[in-house]
Automatic annotation (TrEMBL):
<keyword id="KW-0968">Cytoplasmic vesicle</keyword>
<dbReference type="GO" id="GO:0005829">
    <property type="term" value="C:cytosol"/>
</dbReference>
<keyword id="KW-0677">Repeat</keyword>
<comment type="pathway">
    <text>Protein modification; protein ubiquitination.</text>
</comment>
<feature type="repeat" description="ANK">
    <location>
        <begin position="189"/>
        <end position="221"/>
    </location>
</feature>
<dbReference type="InterPro" id="IPR002110">
    <property type="entry name" value="Ankyrin_rpt"/>
</dbReference>
<feature type="region of interest" description="Disordered">
    <location>
        <begin position="32"/>
        <end position="52"/>
    </location>
</feature>
<dbReference type="GO" id="GO:0031410">
    <property type="term" value="C:cytoplasmic vesicle"/>
</dbReference>
<protein>
    <recommendedName>
        <fullName>Ankyrin repeat domain-containing protein 9</fullName>
    </recommendedName>
</protein>
<dbReference type="GO" id="GO:1990756">
    <property type="term" value="F:ubiquitin-like ligase-substrate adaptor activity"/>
</dbReference>
<keyword id="KW-0963">Cytoplasm</keyword>
<dbReference type="GO" id="GO:0043161">
    <property type="term" value="P:proteasome-mediated ubiquitin-dependent protein catabolic process"/>
</dbReference>
<dbReference type="GO" id="GO:0016567">
    <property type="term" value="P:protein ubiquitination"/>
</dbReference>
<dbReference type="GO" id="GO:0006878">
    <property type="term" value="P:intracellular copper ion homeostasis"/>
</dbReference>
<dbReference type="GO" id="GO:0031466">
    <property type="term" value="C:Cul5-RING ubiquitin ligase complex"/>
</dbReference>
<keyword id="KW-0833">Ubl conjugation pathway</keyword>
<comment type="function">
    <text>Substrate receptor subunit of a cullin-RING superfamily E3 ligase complex (CUL5-based E3 ubiquitin ligase complex) which mediates the ubiquitination and subsequent proteasomal degradation of target proteins. Depending of the metabolic state of the cell, promotes the proteasomal degradation of IMPDH2, the rate-limiting enzyme in GTP biosynthesis or protects IMPDH2 by stabilizing IMPDH2 filaments assembly. Implicated in different cellular processes, like copper homeostasis and cell proliferation.</text>
</comment>
Amino acid sequence: MDGARSGPPQGQGRAAWLVWGVTHALRLPEASMPWDTRPGRSANGGPEGPGAARLRVQKQCRKSSFAFYLAVRDQLPVWLLEDIRASEAFHCDERGRAAAYSPSEALLYALVHDHQAYAHYLLATFPRCALAPPSAGFRCCTAPGPHVALAVRYNRVGILRRILRTVQDFPVEERVRLLDRRGCSRVEGGGTSLHVACELARPECLFLLLGHGASPGLRDGSGFTPLELLLRQLNQDASSAPTEAEAASATVNAATANTTSSEEVCQRRLLLLDLLALYTPGGVVGPARCELLGDQLRWQRLLGEDKFQWLAGLAPPSLFVRAMQVLVTTISPGRFPEALDELPLPSFLQPLDLTGKG
């Protein structure tokens, strides 16, 4: 066996072994590269057919992509990840050719595994490419890049903040298209990133999106705005509310298992409602308003009198809410959320960690 296949020198760390494993052990004999689709020799010495060559390439790509997955998951250094990404083929593109991962696809890996340093590098070095739609193997429709929604889904507040800062330098139409991207109707219900934040109770993500100009009035595939979706979820939570004994037991179990209790989720949803109120001048209309008015006592207990009156269109927002609406709209997206430190924020905004470090 030649020196190239004997492994890295003794004493080298895990990173060196990973580089060697990807760049040497996964390659084929006789210096044939994983993305080499030229017919080779079969096991019996005869010529290799095109179909066998494609299968060989696909197998090697799967090995390479798994090695890259492990490298990002293990938070290996940025320079090493980029070296791997630039030197290996990981998947077959739309034309069936083996290809390396694009910055967009690498950013998806960084988002899933919360590799903030790698995400920041990709966004700083390839701002448009990193947020471009990935190849067909990473998506099910022709919607714009899914990175914003994915950051919300995985609650990657720090990376989301960097993405939103990056898109501020994009042309207005391109920025709006990314912020208000509608997800796949089959997989994501046709909702925007705001819908995802409401569905998964992500107040920090919601506030960042609203502060950077995401539109709260867009409807998902079922016809709900984020506010209406949130009210629907609050209604479901209230309908399935446990008894006091069950709630106490659930809280203890959640604390033991380090999970979120139903009461905490409900509190997050109410916080989401407060945040949406800052960016939604009017209340709800249509069936949602009828639902509020149809069971006023129940909704008043759940939301509070002032909030119920405003949402149902029976009264304007309180003076405090109106003042906060004016304050937050004076902050330009380029100064959000740093400029919040200059504002007299209400108590319900104080616990929000918009840095992604908490």
